[in-house]
Specification:
The chain is mainly α. It has 1 helix and no strands. The longest helix has 15 residues.
Length: 17
C-alpha cells in the first residue's frame, strides 16, 4: 500500500533529520 510506504518514509525522515 502507498500509505504504508509513506509511513516508512516518514519514519526514516524522522531518524535522518
Amino acid at each position: 500500500m502507498c500509505i504504508n510506504n509513506w509511513f516508512i518514509f516518514s519514519n526514516f525522515s524522522l531518524i535522518f533529520f
